[in-house]
From TrEMBL:
Enzyme class: isomerase
Residue positions of the active site: D48 (nucleophile)
Enzyme Commission number(s) of this protein: 5.4.99.25
UniProt similarity note: Belongs to the pseudouridine synthase TruB family. Type 1 subfamily.
Catalytic function, reaction form: uridine(55) in tRNA = pseudouridine(55) in tRNA
This protein's name: tRNA pseudouridine synthase B
Entry superkingdom: Bacteria
Length: 314
């Protein structure tokens, strides 16, 4: 009889990786899985191969909270190269148009307001967006015409930091889900009449995760070798920082974990007690579930069984 397949270590936590340039987010997940031997690993938001910075890695039960990180605000620091458009809207693509025009600092400042707030943005041709079940970048690499419709995105902040030289300028941006820095650079170049693309890109935060928590893949390897991995693991509940918490009794926690609803007194929930509100449910400080409140009924949406290293405390 064939031996049972080895499943890996049970680790329930988030790990914040400072992604290096030149590898994909999927490759980072593979490296983390190999280094830590974690049973289940995923990431909380793709970074382009040329980009560096914050790539939250979900392990074990933390993978259940990935949608909340995908929806979180993200901050970037990036450099725009004026005078050339590329087919990928970044420095890795082929130049498809050039211009001798270069915008003044005042022109740059004057153009930024139109890219702040709720705006319509067309994703790059080489994007992870799906078209009839296929990724846009796969279609583009095959030479097929890729037409992506503009969609609403939120740019909370866009700041012109400094002019590096005639051809380059540095910016900072905070945006919501689905925003592309590459698209913003492309559209800014078009607005300034000079063409543009992203030449460097670094993500500095994703929701509650920032550079202060981030470690390199090399540092991760060293920590595992030293058996000090728990020092850098982040609680599963950190991803749910923006969700109101509600404590339940042990019997209620057992019912929720078994997929059953429980009755609660809405007054105990407080100001958040509105039909349809999502709550982070805890019991004795331990994360139990993500649940929805409907009247006096609290129904589980996601339940947690935190047994692995880290993550058990909310």
């Amino acid at each position: 009889m064939a031996g049972r397949r080895r499943r890996g270590r049970p680790i329930d936590a988030w790990l914040v990786i400072d992604k290096p340039e030149g590898i994909t987010s999927t490759q980072v997940v593979g490296r983390v899985k190999w280094i830590t031997d974690a049973a289940k690993v995923g990431h909380g938001g793709t970074l382009d191969p040329m980009a560096t910075g914050i790539l939250p890695i979900a392990m074990g039960e933390a993978t259940k909270t990935v949608p909340y990180i995908m929806d979180a605000r993200k901050a970037y620091s990036f450099t725009v190269r004026f005078g050339a458009a590329t087919d990928t809207d970044d420095a890795e693509g082929e130049v498809i148009a050039t211009s001798a025009e270069r915008p003044s600092d005042d022109a740059i400042e004057g153009a930024l307001p139109r890219f702040i707030g709720l705006i319509m943005q067309r994703p790059p041709r080489y994007a992870a967006v799906k078209i009839q079940g296929e990724r846009a970048y796969d279609l583009a690499r095959r030479g097929e015409d890729v037409v992506l419709e503009p969609r609403p995105i939120l740019v909370e902040k866009l700041k012109f930091v400094r002019r590096v030289d005639d051809d380059h300028a540095e910016f900072e941006m905070i945006s919501g889900k689905g925003a592309y820095v590459r698209s913003l650079a492309r559209d800014l170049g078009e607005a300034l009449g000079c063409f543009a693309h992203v030449s460097t890109l670094r993500r500095t935060s994703v929701g509650p995760f920032g550079l202060a928590q981030a470690i390199s893949l090399e540092a991760l390897d060293a920590l595992v070798q030293e058996e000090t991995l728990p020092q850098v693991l982040v609680s599963v509940a950190t991803a749910l920082a923006g969700i109101p918490a509600f404590a339940v009794t042990e019997p209620q926690a057992l019912r929720l974990r078994s997929g059953q609803s429980v009755r609660v007194a809405p007054r105990l929930v407080g100001e958040e007690a509105q039909d349809g509100v999502t709550l982070k449910v805890t019991q004795a400080g331990e994360l139990v579930a993500i649940a929805r409140l409907d009247g006096a009924e609290l129904s589980p949406v996601r339940v947690f069984n935190l047994k692995g290293a880290m993550g058990a405390r909310a």
